[in-house]
Design goal:
This protein is an alpha/beta fold and about 110 residues long. The protein contains two helices and six strands; from the N terminus they run E-E-E-E-E-H-H-E.
């Protein structure tokens, strides 16, 4: 059901952190409002020393499913992955970091 993503882009030098890079997904979201949980729309996969940003255009509404949008790579990404403590879920920790640092704009 890919009517908005023809291919997955790679961001090879992505910078995590408060002054890091930003990703604007606002134009891709359908029916998002501040009363809805952004994590119903945005999620991560962490594998092979990279982070993949996934997007479900309509969140929990069900017409769309989460699809890979952007692969984040680079030294900062590797450091962020390595910084996740044992027993923590890397995808949740890193998504919280991106959201708390305002690196995902919505």
């Amino acid at each position: 059901v890919s009517d908005y993503l023809d291919l997955v882009e790679k961001f090879t030098d992505f910078e995590f952190g408060e002054t890091g890079d930003q990703i604007d997904v606002s134009q891709l979201l359908i029916n998002y409002s501040e009363t809805k949980d952004i994590e119903a729309y945005v999620s991560l996969k962490v594998e092979n020393n990279q982070v993949t940003l996934m997007l479900d255009r309509d969140g929990a509404e069900g017409k769309y499913a989460a699809q890979d949008l952007l692969v984040l790579q680079g030294d900062s990404v590797q450091a962020a992955i390595n910084g996740v403590k044992a027993g923590q879920d890397a995808k949740d920790v890193l998504l919280d970091q991106l959201l708390n640092n305002n690196q995902i704009l919505y």
